[in-house]
Amino acid sequence: MTELILSLDVLDRKRAVQIAESCAPFIDEIKVGYPLVLSAGLSIVEDLAGLGLPLIADFKVADIPNTNRLICEAVFAAGFDAVIAHGFVGADAARACVEVAHNHSGAAYIVAEMSHPGATEFFHGGVAESLAELAVACRADGIIAPATRPERIARLREIVGEKAIYSPGVGAQGGDPDTVARLVDGVIVGRSIYEAEDPAAEAERFSRIRR
Ligand code: O7M
Hints:
Layout: E1 3-7, H1 13-23, E2 29-33, H2 34-40, H3 44-49, E3 55-61, H4 65-78, E4 82-86, H5 91-103, E5 107-111, H6 127-137, E6 142-144, H7 150-160, E7 164-168, H8 177-181, E8 186-189, H9 191-194, H10 199-209
Parallel strand pairs: 1-2, 1-8, 2-3, 3-4, 4-5, 5-6, 6-7, 7-8
Helix pairs in contact: 4-5, 6-7
Bound molecules: 6-(methoxycarbonyl)uridine 5'-(dihydrogen phosphate).
The site of 6-(methoxycarbonyl)uridine 5'-(dihydrogen phosphate) has 21 residues, from strand 3, strand 8 and helix 9.
Enzyme class: lyase
Family: Belongs to the OMP decarboxylase family. Type 1 subfamily.
GO molecular function, one term: orotidine-5'-phosphate decarboxylase activity
């Protein structure tokens, strides 16, 4: 079954926790990124940990190997279970994230191609394919690929094989959940759920689509 990952890009701490709690029965993981951590503080991780769902740190880590290592050590010390990193910084830097994740029995995912329109300015001509190959070579646990371009997911699947593909861009960005759910291991959904009048009902609806 395709996983449902809630992208909790909510700025208010109390609302973030409320949404996460109400959606918890219908989701498999929670992705937390800069919007929430910079607004609520890193201790939001402690508030969410009680839900018993894996927490993914979407910091799209993109620095030199030593700095990547320091960032990822802080991520896992805070209580996250997985981290998302960029691959364009090179194999040594990406591998630093993977090593730290695995040392903490966690996971690391590499961004292969992004979902927004502007992504095509740079993720073309084989760049995404190279990033997917890098993810495999670095022994990352999977890649991020765009729900807005299902044909690209299919192409990247040829490269990563059975590694996980997590895909943002359904709903608010226009990607069709039915199409994408068949191609990926997990769909990442933010606004369609957390901006809904009833986020739990919307999460439940997405959880039925992915079966
Ligand atoms: O459903 P949305 O559009 O409200 O939210 C999508 C989330 O996925 C949001 O947190 C984005 O930052 C993230 N995302 C993309 O939308 N596109 C990408 O290409 C990559 C990501 C992402 O999660 O990267 C790890």
